[in-house]
Task: structure prediction
Amino acid sequence: MSNKILNFGIIGAGRIGRLHAENIASCYRNVKLKSVSDLYYENLHEWAGNIGIENLTGDYRDIINDPEIDAVLICSPTDTHAQISIEAAKSGKHIFCEKPVDMDPDRIREVLKQVDASGVIFQVGFNRRFDRNFRKAWKTVREGKVGDIHIIRITSRDPAPPAPEYIKVSGGIFMDMTIHDFDMVRYLSGSEATEVYATGSAMIDRSIAELGDIDTAAVVLKFENGAIGIIDNSRKAVYGYDQRIEVFGSKGCVTVSNETDSLAVISNESGVWSEKPKYFFLERYKESFIIEIGEFIESILNGKKPPVDGIDGLNSVLIAKAAKESLLKGKPVKVEL
Amino acid sequence: MSNKILNFGIIGAGRIGRLHAENIASCYRNVKLKSVSDLYYENLHEWAGNIGIENLTGDYRDIINDPEIDAVLICSPTDTHAQISIEAAKSGKHIFCEKPVDMDPDRIREVLKQVDASGVIFQVGFNRRFDRNFRKAWKTVREGKVGDIHIIRITSRDPAPPAPEYIKVSGGIFMDMTIHDFDMVRYLSGSEATEVYATGSAMIDRSIAELGDIDTAAVVLKFENGAIGIIDNSRKAVYGYDQRIEVFGSKGCVTVSNETDSLAVISNESGVWSEKPKYFFLERYKESFIIEIGEFIESILNGKKPPVDGIDGLNSVLIAKAAKESLLKGKPVKVEL
Amino acid sequence: MSNKILNFGIIGAGRIGRLHAENIASCYRNVKLKSVSDLYYENLHEWAGNIGIENLTGDYRDIINDPEIDAVLICSPTDTHAQISIEAAKSGKHIFCEKPVDMDPDRIREVLKQVDASGVIFQVGFNRRFDRNFRKAWKTVREGKVGDIHIIRITSRDPAPPAPEYIKVSGGIFMDMTIHDFDMVRYLSGSEATEVYATGSAMIDRSIAELGDIDTAAVVLKFENGAIGIIDNSRKAVYGYDQRIEVFGSKGCVTVSNETDSLAVISNESGVWSEKPKYFFLERYKESFIIEIGEFIESILNGKKPPVDGIDGLNSVLIAKAAKESLLKGKPVKVEL
Amino acid sequence: MSNKILNFGIIGAGRIGRLHAENIASCYRNVKLKSVSDLYYENLHEWAGNIGIENLTGDYRDIINDPEIDAVLICSPTDTHAQISIEAAKSGKHIFCEKPVDMDPDRIREVLKQVDASGVIFQVGFNRRFDRNFRKAWKTVREGKVGDIHIIRITSRDPAPPAPEYIKVSGGIFMDMTIHDFDMVRYLSGSEATEVYATGSAMIDRSIAELGDIDTAAVVLKFENGAIGIIDNSRKAVYGYDQRIEVFGSKGCVTVSNETDSLAVISNESGVWSEKPKYFFLERYKESFIIEIGEFIESILNGKKPPVDGIDGLNSVLIAKAAKESLLKGKPVKVEL
Result:
């Protein structure tokens, strides 16, 4: 590995932006957190000081226009991702962009066009690919251990729904939540979805329906390579964050169950009790957030293709869009590729 | 319990008919296996002698017309079930009929009409309801422990596809294999399916497609009570008979995984090895076949409603029919109720 | 297999005697339950009638002296086992004797002398060897899959202690409870114990100490082949009957955990709940009681050595005796072989 | 938490010393790694530079005598621990000392005397107490969830024995390996061992016997509070690092099984395969090494008692000494308290 020190800028210091910053400070000595931008940057001085961030600003363009900055992490609200990505690419910055890149495929295509033209690295924050369990499942599939893929199943259930204000701008469950699963089935299958059937309703909270969204869903995907993908989502599993995958094929099946807070098992008069799954994504995918940044850094230093790129960002949104349409129409919809 | 000895007749001594006979001989002292009919009855003398069957015949009507016979088990080929049921009901015999009752819902309605008119017990052989694991899951749901049901998932995979000659007359995967899962989701949900989306193809064996069937399927069901059912089937899981269910709701989730031949776990340089699931239905559901007959006997003796009745036999076939149609049309189909 | 019908007599119709009788009636058509003897035989008429037993008597000699009887199952109180075995052997009856054969090794040697002289089959009721899980572990070891055996561990805990009247005549925990584990380590190791260290106390119930017994114990055994055996016992595990074994060696490790009443797993706000182990030995070892009788029958029909013989009966008692002595002396004791 | 920056010195930069240094650099911003001493310090410049260590020296006294240094981590060879601890205490430095403090209890008592006199924090590196799984088990016991403790079982098996040169100076398996388990049973039981019975031999490698040590052991401990501890050790489990604990009591049982590298489970024709346990202590106890240092830092900042202190360091060695004696004598030995 190179001895080069990279200068990073982080645009948007909400929960995810701060997590990336802290991980970089702890784990990647070859990256300097030169600048962080956020609308509410005045509140961030203590936090920034603790982890050695040099500059705080309220304007992301201070980062885009800083010639020393090698790469930016775009962690601002979704509706800003595309614009900032385009400006960053024009400015020759490598880009790590949180999901989704945008809810409009055409807007994403604009981003990818600029990224191509500028020749910068563009990586999308589908962190679950970097989870050691899912990575092991993917590796198992790639090594041919399940043979031809027949059925991929994903269960993804959150411990609690987001706040109504969030739901209003989230783009709906498929764009906000299932999009991770769309990326995961693409990753596991190594193929593209051709058709989507999506159904569901607001079973947990009627107010979610009033906001035009659903909280419980089932999605069936058909893939180019013949595989079938089956996803079930819920915005509220009272027992925690349920994240399970399964790839079934001609030679076998690989499954991944839930990580827990400890392996302690208590047996008593009432039964045999084990821990619930880890509570939510920050706990469950803690290491994956670290690893995805590490691979982004490697891509920059080695000129390698990023592990999750703009096409992954685009195609997951195309599936989400088709899923939304299928839910409305009540029948399967082809995925525009 | 009564001291009455019941006389049973078994119509059809194929694998399932002989299994029921042997279970009755071993476990139910209050039932006499008076007669067994089968086209190939001449080959059955030694078997029949071993378990104390009095009469063997090539003509089922010898059983139907025998005034001593209290009840019949109809285990003959599917296309004879309806006719024999009607005759048996007319003759005042209680009836245990293997699944499916018939592939034509109207024909089933004729059977049920006669059964009602005759006032006999009519139980359908959906044995999985009597599996202790699935029964525990059902009980858990009925006790309200998962709350309102949101998602029911079933994975049902056979170790190997049936012979081509069987596939030709099976009525297709939904009528032959998934029908057990249709009954199970009705049982678990306590509700009726209103709509079915089914998809799939012949991924294991192209010749199955040539026979007009598929071997891999995904089915999404909508229920009257709002629950979503998701079923995945495969005719060939190389690791054995995969039979898993899950009911997820507002208060929690109950799952059932696969029974194995032993609990021995071997750890060595290669990993940690556990037993595969039990091979196929005779091994996996061994006790359920015994229990379903026991509850049939109890219904007769106590005049109780049978645990699985004609409506269950009809409605599962209605779902199967709708699934077939959905597969052909490529979109969801309403279930005729 | 032969077509011969064997005539069995059961001596002692307590819980275990009745269980053997019922299993034979259900499962072994080639055995006729000709006679059952018990001090309280007058109460057994309905039970005996239900399962087809021909004769009931209060005097076991009616069975011993009946020339038609081929074999006897000795299920009477422990202090009668030796005497009845000797008489039965003299009378040319094959013998299945419940454990322990006797608490006095010399008395057992008298029995074995008579058995040898008479040339009858003598099998001891160490049923756990016939449990499919432990049998699989044993097979795994014999196939060399764990290599040279280094450590064998057994945890054996009852759901509740026996009644004080029983404890008084039980011979103490090692003779009554741990003796199964002594047999199991001999079975798994394929070797003989040379030295025993046993310790323990009455942790559950002080009154057990007043009866001169203990309720919690740890035993370390050294084997001729170098293996170490480690056993822990408790008379009261509130979560049920805990029966786990492990054989660790140069090439790996095989473990067996507890069977449960069902595989249902419930996840909710409090955690992930699984079933407790099956309650006690009748539930947990149900099939083993059937199989051990089956192998006894086979030994008789085929003239094969029984799978558990008099030496097994003797050597387990020798270990139990040494364990008692070790507990008293507070140091290891050599096993007299 | 205080804003104070502590200056640490690390004495001994072998594997464990470097691990502690790297963890501090990554995780504890309020600690400056001012100095590191090691005989081979010339080779450490690049490593030291990467993690921001200011000074490297070949003489630990440069650290002891540095008035700026607040605390030292003693990670040098065992036979230097006591001397350096005494000097460090005299110099007013807080001390984190790797296990064992010394193999001679009297020498440890000298250390503790100086530590008391100097009023410094003295923490011993029994990191497993900080493992989240074992901590959860401990918490479960302390909350009374298993009731009165009856039996504590520990299985601790390494993937491979140490090199012969190491074995020669290790003090033997009880002082080097089982000492962790002695500390763990003290931790879990909340009591002191009164008597030890230890047995074992060189089953894996005869050359270990030639070095006067054993590689396979069983230890039975009696505790003041009546509990029995049972430990089994092996220097070579081919399937990895086997670290399991169990606490069984009057109200239930808590067990902890092995962490694995991933939760991927592969089912195929051969069976159901899961990952082996994590390979060795650096992998398995990765977080515990971080947490133990964190709690050491807190003790310094808050003046709290350290979570593992000199008494823990002494009493574990007393048990190890008694175990050695028991192995030689072939009988139980009282622990000198």
